[in-house]
Write a structure and sequence with these properties.
The longest helix has 12 residues, at 101-112. This protein is of the alpha/beta class. The protein has four helices and five strands, in the order E-H-E-H-E-H-E-E-H.
């Protein structure tokens, strides 16, 4: 599986969805991990630490979204990321759907498309 991690867009959110140790564990099992450049900086993880653990560093978030099979995020997708949701994408994050009707609607429409 190709796992993607992008920088969180929510204001004041500095966490990252996976640590270099997590990348090491996934790549040891044969998975590929794509990390957006700078995604871990707010949590104290450099691009080099991810690269050393086996991740591929990508310059643009769109490249990560478009090339992964599973996206892992800390928070729900930002409205600017809705366009990347697709039926064949596994999306792993905390979703606060009751508080965000638009996200609920987008999630439902994207998940139900053939």
């Amino acid at each position: 599986m190709i796992v993607g991690v992008v920088k969180e867009l929510k204001e004041q959110e500095n966490r990252v969805a996976i640590t270099p140790a997590g990348v090491d564990a996934l790549t040891a099992c044969g998975h590929k991990v794509l990390i957006q450049k700078g995604a871990g900086l707010g949590s104290g993880f450099s691009d080099e630490s991810y690269r050393a653990a086996g991740a591929e560093i990508m310059n643009d978030a769109s490249d990560v979204w478009e090339n992964c099979e599973m996206m892992v995020k800390v928070k729900e997708p930002h409205e600017s990321e809705y366009k990347y949701l697709r039926p064949d994408l596994v999306f792993f994050a905390y979703l606060h759907l009751a508080a965000d009707y638009n996200l609920t609607e987008v999630s439902w429409i994207q998940a139900s498309q053939p």
